[in-house]
Design goal:
Length: about 200
Amino acid sequence: MRFKEGDKVEFIYGGTLTQGVVTEIRATNHDISYQIVYFGGEKKIWFAERELLSPAPVLKVPQFVADWISRRRQEGYNLIWSISYENNDMPDEMYEWLTSTADNQELFARAWLDGYEVEKELLYYVKLPISKRNEATDELEVINMCLLLNIQSHETCISGNYRWVDKLKRTGWRTKLTEAQIKDMPEGDAYWQFAVPVRDLEGEA
């Protein structure tokens, strides 16, 4: 059985490649049939397994690549000029990504022509070990503080609570940062040593 309920599939209907979702499966000794819902859930149809295809995977590109494609299209440029290394207004990050491997050049061309999704970047907390005097014992102890970055003003500060800043997103403060945001700060390479993936801390109180 190639598909299960909930899988997206493609099929030819009325001479057109159409996409739908498997909602029911019937298996016999000779074949497997799938009920497909399509056209926004308004229509249903049955197909034999041999008549169905898995959709081609959607290409994923970094956010800065998606931004570059969007910008170039709005400015009326074509694919060839948008990938040209002689393009003086190409951002450094984009240039480095394109020239780092031939695979990225092919990926860019396919994304431009066939469409793409923006890949979700990993986010990190920067947890800094800070020495603090315990007033009760009069001894030094190490506590973890979280680095905060204001993505508008590029200011930084630290806090003992890495979640409270979510309430201040309107003012540009973030605790969940990308690798690039961390490394672009002054002393960013040092901060990067204390970066912890957000998913590793999501279960903490």
